[in-house]
Amino acid sequence: MSKLEQTLSSIKPVNPAFYEKAQKRLDNLTKPQGSLGRLEEFAAKIVAITEKMEPILHKKAIFTFAGDHGVAEEGVSAFPKEVTPQMVLNFLRGGAGINVLARHSNAEVVVIDIGVDYEFGNTDGLVHKKVIRGTKNIRKCPAMTQDETVKCLEVGIDLANEYAKKGYHIFGTGEMGIANTTPSSAIAAVFSKRTVEEVTGRGTGISDDAFKNKVRVIEDAIKINKPNPKDPLDVLAKLGGAEIAGIAGIVLGAAANRIPVVIDGFISTAGALIACEIEPKVKEYIFAAHTSVERGHWIMLERMDLKPILNLNMRLGEGTGAALGMSMIEAGVKIYNEMATFGEAGVSERNEDDRGGRLDVGGKQ
């Protein structure tokens, strides 16, 4: 049995009994039932995923995968591909957006070279897992071979297993790769059966003419490669990227280890979608951090039946949304763990004969 097959066989459905137990405690806290909205939802989901009635989220890791894309030569990005290794070095120096927001969320940033067309040498702090030196141009041929695709998935799985053994409680996903909104849009189009224009955005901020070119490039890539939507590995190999595959592997590995995973924006969601198409049960382990301004993002989230936590008009990637999402999830868990129950606080509960939906606690609704 391959590593991928072993991982898939380890993924089990979330036990609804733990949702019920968590909800019982949440409903008994000193507040009107449901009054903390989605924070309560986050807490119950964490309890169900971890199967721990007093969960903790102290150790957080955000995996930022870096990879280049051959399709960049088609002029689909506002930036040259040299920016990919430059930004990787910026991550390692702690100067990027993900570093700032990870510090804010008290999360560790793990930077992985999985497919950058650049040799970093013995760069301190970089996780060296290079499978390919960038994908091939999807407008001309498949992005990767099947073997390369599986190796990239297994990089993510191995990292998930490694950090699970280290005792990490929650994972986040991020990426860096110039032109990677192009393969992500292609993946969204294939699985959603929407037109390319419906799922394609402007990425790093391209002009109108460049956007029209980007749509044509993606349409050509799908026509030339003929990916099979019933075979997620085929779609990933023909249209995807090394970092997208690594993210899919992290999501699969997280689910196999019963660890919640917070996905970032458009590219991370493309990776998560691949994971869900491979094994639908993994969506129970995923939190969608936010919805980006990329138009295909909502379409992918809807296919996975995931509701984003935030909507801040973000489109940076790197794992920035995941860092913020982790803060919201941790807030929900702290409410669940630290807030007093009615009995503990000596506060009267709702009147049994109250039909108006009111709870008399400090005059609050």
What is the domain total for the residues? 2
Mind telling me which CATH architecture of the largest domain this is? Answer: 3-Layer(aba) Sandwich
Low-pLDDT segments: 355-365
| Fraction of residues in H or I helices | 40-55%
Explain this structure to me?
- The protein has 2 domains: 51 residues, 5,6-Dimethylbenzimidazole Phosphoribosyltransferase, Chain: A, domain 1 (Orthogonal Bundle), CATH 1.10.1610; 270 residues, 3-Layer(aba) Sandwich (Rossmann fold).
- Helix content is 48%, strand content 8%.
- It is built from 15 helices and 6 strands.
- A 6-stranded parallel sheet has the order 3-2-1-4-5-6, with helices on both faces.
- It is globular, with a radius of gyration of 21 Å.
- The termini are far apart.
What are its keywords?
disordered C terminus; alpha/beta; 6 strands; 365 residues; Rossmann fold
SSE layout and pairing:
Elements: H1 3-10, H2 16-27, H3 37-50, E1 60-67, H4 83-93, H5 97-105, E2 108-115, E3 127-128, H6 146-165, E4 170-176, H7 181-192, H8 196-199, H9 208-225, H10 232-239, H11 242-256, E5 261-263, H12 266-278, E6 286-288, H13 295-303, H14 320-338, H15 342-345
Parallel strand pairs: 1-2, 1-4, 2-3, 4-5, 5-6
Compact description:
The chain has 365 residues and is of the alpha/beta class. The chain has helices at 3-10, 16-27, 37-50, 83-93, 97-105, 146-165, 181-192, 196-199, 208-225, 232-239, 242-256, 266-278, 295-303, 320-338, 342-345, and strands at 60-67, 108-115, 127-128, 170-176, 261-263, 286-288.
